[in-house]
Amino acid sequence: MNKKEREIFKQKVEQYPVIINRENSIDGKAQLLHFKDRVKDLDLNLIFGSDLSHSKYKNIHNDSLYLIGKQLQKPFYLGNSLEEVKQEIMADGEAEDYGPRYMQQYGSGILTNKKVGRTTAIYAHEEFDELPTDEDAISYAKDFYKRPDISRFSQPTKDRDVERANLSTSSVNSELSYHETHSNDSIAFQQKEAIDKYASTHQLPNGMKFVNLEKLLKNGDFFENPWVSSDRYDLFNHVYNGSKYGVIFIEDGEVAIHNLSKKELTTISNLEDYEFDPEYKKVSKDLAKVAPNAPDFSIDLGDPMSLDLSVIENDYYTPDKTIDDDRAKANIVLKPTSIVKGLEWNQKQDIYYYNPKNKKEPQLIGKDLESFADYLNEPAKIDGLSTTLVDINREHFAKTHQDQVKNIQRNLYIGRDKNANEDLFKKYLRKYDVYINPSKKDFEDANVLLGLSKDTNLNKVVEKMEKPKQEKAIGYIKANSKKDKATPNLARRENAKRLLEEYGFDATEENIEKMAKNIENEDKFNKQLKIKKSGLESVKLELADPEIRKNYAETYGKKTEIDKKTEQVFLEKPIYSQWFMQRDREEKEYEDLERLGFPSFYQGEEKQKFEKLSQKIPVHTIRKLENAYVATRDIYFDDKTSEVKNISLVSKTTKAKIEKNSKKYLALEHAKKASRNKKLER
């Protein structure tokens, strides 16, 4: 850049609009201001790399802008284009996810942390060499922060009073008022109900899917696409404001996600035919009738050629596939089953919820007492993420009986421990309109008791009665026949195959045999300890733990995408492999020091080695290595131990390859050192 180009670039960066929200909330505490004012508030200064000391700071780029200040140990890199500056501001905000240690070590978090608040760059709707207009900035602020303070944001005088008036009255807008008085969970639940209601009578056309926004937000592969990455923070805000489900439309020239809200879907349905697929318009119009008043948004994902749809395939919301095609005509088939005395608790039983006052047909809410009771004991599962009809119905039951679920769960466990018989369970749950292994007559009696016709709501309920001997043959738990020893093994193999596929493992013949044997061993173990769980349930419980799941992946998994990408980055050069190994040691050292009570800024030996090694690698490469390393970690809060767990997702095989390659670097360094020593000796 010449001098004039630098001045223009710096001026654009200074004028870039940003939002500051001190509590990440929508309570009106956000500020809209220019980046130069944010920099001034933080006692920082913008400076070009050419004006920095190259002897003091390594890998400084002359044409790039940096932030400097007394409180910074080193300049904070912003970039040499408006697009890069915007991305660095956003990345600084995301650094909060990696904790204070990451921010301190890499200079991130200076614009965003708990003390100074979150800094959000306004999305640029035009080419990145142009600034967003004042109107765009204010519109963005209103959409996501409702009533931001714009007093320090310069605008044309003639527009200022009008915009302030719009902002001040926005709180009385019916849709915003609705949102402000309802919880985020409420909006997510309404969206799920809207999807369920639509799916019960309609079939989605090709090219349209319901998508789980919360899962999508956590999908790293999805955001690797440069077209999508700029929308990540937009998506975060909509999930944060309560939206959990959206609808994705895939046309020849475009892919886009739209929020499941009345306003958004009504807007789509009112478009001209040449602007939007008529079939999609019809779906939008039908959905708008049942959609909630959620925050509105749409995200342009670009064209299908530039977006790998396979990476979000598993994030689609899919209703129960068993009655997916013709749900409206599907009958509710009751199959009363003979329950073996003493096995009431862990034998499979159909559990229905039916209250004639709701004017709905009976809903299947459980397939056995144990899982039903366990579900009521885990409120975290009432989260809008269920994907089968049984789970959706059970979730609805739990939400509508929130004051009673704990009491129901506790009494079910008491009944289990006292070996209560099935009749007692039936009589107890009947108080909550819950039926175990019901016949159609049970529902008819409930109608008559309320003064309704016995057939009310039951036109789809049919009953398939079996003779007692046949019942045992088709029962949910087959008797262990001495004559047919192959049957249990066949069932274990089928369960093993389903389990492998469910958790994304390789369903090879070898793995099926291993998993079937594992389930068989768990069956024996549970029987020895008199635990009322099947081997399949025990294995599923283990797989719910990320640490144990990693061990399963070693045995049953194929090379994951994480392994492929990790090898691609860290096997490129021996020094990159050594960087990975040293980063691992430094991570372990930090956790050990933190456990011993050392302050976060303490420089351990491994950290010093790591920083010394990092100085030998260019800054832009360090950024690539760090992003690749962070992608290999699973960081989560363990409710059982009340600890933050930081687990590596890299397989032992991949790690062994990296370690082997790193030894080439160590050997080369050793040879260099030996050569230098020989020269000194001469």
TrEMBL record:
Stretches the record annotates as Disordered: 155-176
Name of the protein in its database record: DUF3945 domain-containing protein
UniProt biased composition (Polar residues): 166-176
Organism: Lactobacillus jensenii
